[in-house]
Specification:
The chain is α/β, with parallel strands linked by helices and 330 residues long. The chain has one domain: D-Maltodextrin-Binding Protein, domain 2, CATH 3.40.190. Helix content is 44%, strand content 17%. It contains 13 helices and eleven strands. The strands form three sheets. It has a six-stranded mixed sheet. β1, α2 and β2 form a beta-alpha-beta unit. α2 runs antiparallel to α10. The longest helix has 33 residues. The termini are far apart. About 4% of the residues have low confidence. The chain binds (2S)-2-hydroxybutanedioic acid. The site of (2S)-2-hydroxybutanedioic acid has 10 residues, from loops.
Length: 330
């Protein structure tokens, strides 16, 4: 009996030595975000999942959690540092606790258009900003566009004075708070997941978001007026934790990085397309009136909001502001 038993044990040991280990558990990557799936960020995250699973089958398992299902926007970075989520792409306005430099992107009327934003983000200065969160244990993997923000409200916002005394939901950014204070508004920092209800129940009068967020979250159904202001930017930084990135095996990390790069390029194409098509869809829905801004009206908003630049110049950095402005020249 003992002899048979040892023979069996030896046979099992032999088999274990000769067959390669194929059953190591896949590396799990949870990608958490707050927007709907059919948005630039949502589609980018899903494309990343597809690419990684094609290229690293059985080795890496990507799971995307949209619509704040896993973490709301104010919790996701803390969760990332605790290892509970591996990828996210919060809006650039949501990094204030981690770096003051990214606040640059919140300055109203800074970039002329998305081409200027792209030029700046791809410049040496823009790329260096991706590292601004490293001291806090995060790594910026790239930018992804959504687009320029529009102002929405219950009553038409034609001139800065129309915002006086109105409550506006904003992201967690002091610059965005100052921007609305400049026009006499009352800013309230609230998570994205609460915006629809805040608007529907009239707990706030208005908000700001790009076309694809307004359309995908149906804000236009509870905001009868949208002013096409293009007054600020809503873009994202794709981010992971330094610890997670460093621990990835040598053969896996470049594939993840390349897949992210391709997914971001795809997300940027979606952003460009949705800026036009979701705007059209909102107009065609007839639920919200889209108000154009004349040059003179725009000049008044610029004049009212621009003092915010000076107010935050010390935190953001004068040179950084100048570099962003330079990107407006082709
Ligand atoms: C918001 O909170 O308004 C946006 O940051 C949501 C998003 O991620 O686009």
């Amino acid at each position: 009996m003992t002899f048979v038993k040892s023979l069996l044990t030896a046979a099992i040991a032999c088999a274990a030595l000769t067959s390669p280990i194929t059953h190591a558990a896949p590396i799990e990557i949870k990608f958490s975000h707050v927007v709907a799936e059919n948005t630039p960020k949502g589609r980018m995250a899903n494309r990343f999942e597809e690419l990684v699973e094609q290229r690293l089958p059985g080795k890496v398992d990507v799971k995307v959690y949209p619509n704040s299902q896993l973490f709301g926007d104010n919790k996701v970075l803390e969760a990332m540092l605790l290892g509970d989520v591996q990828l996210a792409a919060p809006s650039l306005s949501k990094f204030q606790k981690y770096t003051k430099q990214l606040q640059l992107f919140d300055l109203p009327f800074l970039f002329d258009d998305m081409a200027a934003v792209e030029r700046f983000q791809q410049s040496d200065v823009g790329q260096k900003l991706l590292q601004s969160v490293e001291k806090k244990g995060l790594v910026g993997m790239g930018y992804i566009h959504n687009g320029m923000k529009q102002l929405s409200a219950y009553a038409p916002l034609k001139l800065p004075a129309d915002a006086k005394g109105k409550k506006f939901r904003i992201q967690t950014s002091d610059i965005l708070a100052a921007q609305f204070e400049q026009v006499g508004g009352i800013p309230l920092k609230k998570p994205f997941s609460e915006v629809f209800t805040l608007l529907q129940t009239k707990a706030v009068d208005g908000t700001e978001n790009p076309w694809s967020n307004i359309y995908s979250k149906k804000f236009h159904e509870v905001q009868p007026y949208i002013t096409e202001s293009n007054h600020g930017l809503l873009d994202y930084m794709v981010v992971t934790s330094k610890e997670f990135l460093m621990e990835l095996p040598e053969d896996i990390r470049p594939v993840i990085e390349q897949s992210l790069k391709e997914a971001i390029a795809y997300g940027n194409e979606v952003a460009a397309e949705k800026t036009l098509s979701d705007r059209e869809a909102i107009i065609n829905s007839g639920r919200s009136e889209v108000i154009a801004m004349s040059e003179d009206e725009r000049a008044q908003w610029v004049k009212a909001m621009k003092p915010v630049w000076k107010q935050f110049e010390g935190q953001v950095g004068k040179e950084l502001i100048q570099a962003a402005l330079d990107s407006n020249q082709k």
